[in-house]
Specification:
2 helices; about 110 residues; five-stranded antiparallel β-sheet; globular; about 30% strand
């Protein structure tokens, strides 16, 4: 499959594997490739309240990734967090951790 750069928030850091939350646009479809529509990737998307803009929420997906694959550089055209209205957003870090450890019981792709 094709590589995709995305904004990410570290939810559970680890020496070898780190759990991150990515924008809903980074969902994976049933074929194992990137989802081509919101419906196709909906099974793994969770809504999270956002720190900004206040009172909004955005869809997120959780992935377990090789810690060495994480980079802190800004990448042009990276998939970004956004509200359902298409406004740039930043999910609330504590709520992401609550979703991952609570609702999802530590399950990540």
């Amino acid at each position: 499959g094709a590589a995709r750069a995305a904004e990410a928030v570290v939810v559970a850091p680890g020496a070898a594997q780190t759990v991150i939350a990515c924008p809903a646009d980074c969902a994976i479809g049933a074929s194992g490739d990137w989802a081509t529509s919101p419906t196709e990737g909906a099974w793994q998307v969770r809504d999270c309240e956002c720190a900004t803009p206040s009172g909004s929420s955005c869809g997120v997906v959780f992935y377990s990734v090789d810690t060495r694959a994480l980079a802190t550089a800004e990448v042009p055209d990276a998939c970004c967090f956004q509200t359902s209205a298409g406004q740039r957003a930043l999910p609330e870090a504590e709520l992401l951790a609550g979703l991952f450890h609570g609702d999802l019981q530590g399950d990540a792709l």
